[in-house]
Amino acid sequence: MDYNTDIIRDNSPMDNLEKQLICPICLEMFNKPVVILPCQHNLCRKCANDVFQAGNPYWPTRTSVSGGKFRCPTCRHEVILDRHGVYGLQRNLLVENIIDIYKQDCTSRPEKKKENHPMCEKHEDERINIYCISCQVPTCSMCKVFGSHKDCEVSPLQNVYQNQKIELTGCISMLIAGNDRIQTIIGQLEESCKTIKECSQKKSESVNELFVELNTVIEEKKAGLLKRISQAEEEKLKFAGSLIVKYQEKLQSSSDLLQSALQMVEQTGHATFLLKSKQLMNRITEEPKGSQLEKTEPNFENMDQFTLDIEHVIECLRNLDFSTCCEYEEEEEDIEEYEEPEEERPEGQQ
Asked: What is the fold, at CATH topology level, of the domain defined by 130-191?
């Protein structure tokens, strides 16, 4: 990996160390005591308390140290506090010792002239070293003495810097608190979505089970009705078949009698004919009287008694819908109102 050697040369180890000792809340070097969070990031204890209080606006007081939670401003890890609040967080003595050593080293070194200091646009040789409170802009001393800000109220940069840094820190705390609230709402909504899916799945399964049960009942009813039709068909076919057999026997008997009568007609002997013709005619005459057979009733072959009227059932199925709790309560009230008169009937009344 290639590195920019100029950058490495310009950034001394102490400068890099100073960057590591900046609090992400106040943007200043850590002020003791320094607390270390479970995520291993550090904060000034005062800043940690400010973040905690900003994320818990309904806490009784700003100095309350009872339990609660807030998120690390660096990694957003949720920090759970016990009843001691931020005072229950462990101090990072190592960082505090490093800060002491760094400050001692800084006091022993000559103050380094800061580079790239902003210069005044109107007075190019003058550094911006004061703040115009009236115009709300930083400017230089020449602008105050001779320039456009000579009638304005000004203040040292350091004073305004500290005040605005405090305000910005408060804004950061508000943003963190707002983000925490939004994150909480998002979590609640995600949990709601999960619950909605679970409830929808359960209701879908319930509806499927009900329709499976409904189909089972319909199939059982269908099988019972078809069985009744088959039984009626079998009974009618059996009866009709028995009649066919009887009529075939009757036809056979009549055919035999007809054959005998035809043979008798061909008889040429007068005596022989007269001996048998009277008896044969009596048989023919008596044949219809002695063999009265059953007949089928009118429309015997029809199956009109098995006609189904299911229009009301189809209408009920079309109107099938989900019922609310209120509808169930109204139905229960109607049932109770219907049952009450039965209990109050006088004795002997039907």
From this structure: Double Stranded RNA Binding Domain (3.30.160)
